[in-house]
Amino acid sequence: SILYASFHMDKQTYKKASVLEPYFTGGAARVTRDGKLLACVCGEEVKVVDIATGAVLRTIEGDTEPVTALAVSPDCKTLVAASRSLMLRVYDLQSGQLKRSWRVHKAAVADMAIDASGGYVATASADRTIKVWDLEAGFCTHSFVGHSGVVLRVMFHPKQLQLFSGGDDSEVRVWDLVEKRCTATLQAHFSAVTCLALSPDGWLLLSGGRDKVVVAWDLRTNSKVATIPVYEAVEGMVCCPLGSTFPNTERPPAAGAATKGAKKMAFFATAGEKGRIKLWRTDTATCVYECEPEGGSSAAAAAAAREYTDLCLLPAGSGLMATTGDARLLFYYCEQMPSTSGAGSSSSSLVLRRQLVGNIDEVTDVRLVGGASPLTPSHIAVASNCEVIRLFEMGSLSCTTSLVGHKDTVLAMDAATWGKDNSGGASSSWHSGWDQEGVVVSGGKDAEVRVWAVPSGRCLGVGVGHVGAVSAVALGRKGSPPKFIVSAGADKLLKVWDLADLLEAAAASASLEGNEVTKRSKKAKANDQQALLVGKHAVASLRVSAAVAGHDKDINTVAVAPNDSLIATGSQDRTVKIWRLPSLVPVTTLKGHKRGVWCVEFSPVDQAVITASGDKTVKMWTLADGGSCVRTFEGHTATVLRASFATAGTQVLSAGADGLVKLWSLRTGECVNTFDEHTGKIWAMTSGGKAESVLVTGGADATVVVWRDSTEEDAAAAAAEEDLVYEREQALANALADHDFASAARLAFDLKHPGRLLSVIQRTAGGVAVGGSAGQEARRLLSGLVEHMSDEDVRTALEYCRSWNTNTRNCHASS
After folding, report:
1. What is the CA angle 164-65-46, rounded to 5?
2. Which of 185, 261, 691, 697 is most exposed, with the fewest beta carbons within 10 Å of its own?
């Protein structure tokens, strides 16, 4: 550590590298026809997101009222948005500029659709009317009245001059755009009609509702063809296009030559309250395919499945995008998977390949995990105000895995990474048959402690025994893998859980399942049985090795010493206690904070700890003399919620309820720098990577910020700037010596030396009032200087003139 500190300079600055921010708060989300962009409702704004990277490309400001409906033109150039202000606003999708706006209805717009030509938009409103508008001119071309309730869905026929609508009056209506009247009222539902879809040939209309059925209608006769029970309230529905590779949607050879009286066949997908996508066939009213829920087919995954609120078809029928009730966008793609029926055969499946989390909600904890080694983390584990932990890829910040198992909000996490490099070291052999890169440990309001494999997201074990929320967890820090877990929480209990046996069993099960181990000794048979149990995705139970009642009030934080000999706990009782492992014998109690302690961490190089408290301070304590405070860092204006050592223990990072991240010098106790990117409390902070160059923070503003240490870059840039100044100084001296006053004036102005610039002007004018040949030369010099000035440069020049005018000796130069 001493060598590390000597070869790495103290950190000075962090720069924001990427941000995971809210861009979808529920409601409408529309994919452009080219499949590149996604327009999402985010409160009063519309966010345009790059689907490939998940980055927010632009934010389209609204009119201070929540957006209720969206539509994107077929040419991907126009975005139409309606809000509760009852205004319809038309934007240029590429630039985000507002083209025009007008008032459309007497109540909020619930849905809208743009026709195939891109020239007209239909709006469905809570005032029970439907209107069609000319997008270019902004006038109403059609106004339809007939529904007796809120109109929830509207859809243009792609080939015929027809419009379809569905409402909460359980009716589906067909409108003729030429005759401007309702040509059919289709009644078969017993609840609100929430979605409409057309078959590929355009003659079969499908309507889905909250009565848990889908009805197929023949548009030639406006009669009901079939009723398909789907056993869930339907919120989204699309028809599978011809030639698509959706699973089990191959048409039989005789499908094109339908016999008289035979039901018309079409395949369609539904999504609704159960959080699953299902594919159906109209003529047989059967489900031909059902997607596995996110997180697998376990009962926990099924219980955690979120309701789907919408479903749309991806371009070219390549897949589906489902919108969830917790503001996520799930992208399912059609892929050929190896079939179990025979060698060499394959079948199509819908596979969840991409997940965009539009709003992660209030962040409770973050950790860096995965990667080839602890120095190159590949993912960020984010726990927010829900029971699911999500893994985000470091580069694109797209969600790759969800850890499903907790029954209530996850409050705390810790992580350990060992990578996949098994080339050497005594500790590498234990996981030589395992393809996982590390583990995440979590605790939540459900009073459980869980262990997860990374990056697969599989739950390896669960610890049950706490009688209150688990608000703090920590892994052992010595060795790979960590040997134990420490947990604490609202029940004031401190528990130590054995972890080594669980990970050994998980690694052994991976070897057995992969047929990498064929023979084992008799002594290992018992371990084989446990390994096979874990290998079948059963969740093992963690064993408590020690437990003690730790504090008088809730325990907020727990930390483990680098050598695994001590544990530190911080509590709302304003104390920090040090415990000796393995039997949890109390060593000392640190007193001095005036409010509850929110964070504690051991120094990586000294016998010391730092603590963060509600009294707005960070304190450093030495353990060598029994526990005395040796340094207090003051500067935060609200509760300090996180603190950690940096730069091999020579600096401290802190974050608090004031939304600030501060960097402190341990030697002087002074604040080196302050970073401000959050708008709310910062509940979570972690650092890692090579030389601790990566810092991640998350807070109550539902934002995760990834910071990069830019100290060396800034120092190099400052040195380069200094060299450039020296070069310009020398060039200015040379120009004055050569009487090249035009170049000298330009250099003096660029260097922001008004005194030298004044001297150049006076020397050009011959040191007399501006007039005659000398004055004309001065004017030519100044004209050449002003000619290439920017607006900011002109402002600076005028400020120089104002200053010169205050002195009679210099006023001639300013004129």
Report:
1. 70
2. 261
- Residue 187 burial (CB count, 10 A): 13
Quick one: DSSP state of residue 427? G
**What average pLDDT score do residues 791-814 get?**
77
- Category of 134 on φ-ψ map: left (φ > 0), alpha (ψ -120 to 50) or beta: beta
**Spatial CB neighbours of 367, under 8 Å, sequence gap ≥ 6:** 380, 381, 413, 414, 415, 440, 686
Contact 596, 613 (CB under 8 A): yes
Which contiguous run of DSSP H or E holds residue 736?
helix 711-737
In three-state secondary structure terms, 760 is helix
Q: Which residue in the block uniquely carries the two structure tokens 């966008």? A: 329
Q: What radius of gyration do the chain's Cα atoms show?
A: 34
Q: What is the DSSP letter of 625?
A: T
Report in angstroms the alpha-carbon separations of 425 from 431, 480, 503, 785. 12, 10, 18, 67
State the DSSP code for 361.
Answer: -
The answer for residues whose C-beta is within 8 angstroms of residue 795's C-beta and 6 or more apart is none
pTM: 0.81
CA distances from 404 to 94, 109, 298, 355, 457 (A): 38, 36, 10, 15, 8
Task: Please answer whether residues 322 and 310 qualify as being in contact, where contact means their C-beta atoms are separated by less than 8 angstroms.
Answer: yes
Encoded tokens for 576: 């920090």
CA atoms of 495 and 470, how far apart (whole Å): 10
- H/E segment holding residue 101: strand 98-103
CA dihedral 464, 470, 474, 475 (to 10 degrees): 20
DSSP code of residue 258? P
Question: 88: number of CA atoms within 13 Å, CB side?
Answer: 32
Contact (Cβ atoms closer than 8 angstroms) between residue 43 and residue 60? no
Residues 697-743 have pLDDT tens digits of: 999 999 999 999 998 888 888 888 888 888 888 888 888 887 777 78
User: 């419009």: which residue's tokens?
Assistant: 163
Residue 577 has pLDDT above 90, yes or no: yes
Amino acid at 19: V
pLDDT tens digits, one per residue of 755-788: 888 887 777 766 444 445 555 666 677 776 777 7
CB atoms closer than 10 angstroms to residue 284: 12
Which pLDDT value is given to residue 85? 94
- Report yes or no: 782 and 761 within 8 Å, Cβ to Cβ: yes
Rounded CA-CA distance 535/513 in Å is 7
* Class of residue 676 by CB neighbours under 10 A (exposed 0-12, middle 13-18, buried 19+): exposed
Block residue for tokens 């708060």: 25
Identify whether the C-beta of residue 575 lies closer than 8 Å to the C-beta of residue 597: yes
Q: Are 358 and 330 in contact (CB under 8 A)?
A: no
Q: Are strands 585-591 and 597-602 parallel, antiparallel or unpaired?
A: unpaired
The model's confidence at residue 122, banded by pLDDT at 50, 70 and 90, is very high
Nearest to 106 by CA among 125, 124, 121: 125
- Please tell me what DSSP assigns to residue 435: -
Give the chain's mean pLDDT.
85
Residue type, 136: E
321: left (phi over 0), alpha (psi -120 to 50) or beta: beta
Q: What is the pLDDT of residues 17-28, one digit of tens each?
A: 999 999 999 899
Rounded distance, CA 244 to CA 319, Å? 9
Beta strands in 550-616 (DSSP E): 555-560, 566-571, 575-580, 585-591, 597-602, 608-613
Contact 240, 317 (CB under 8 A): yes
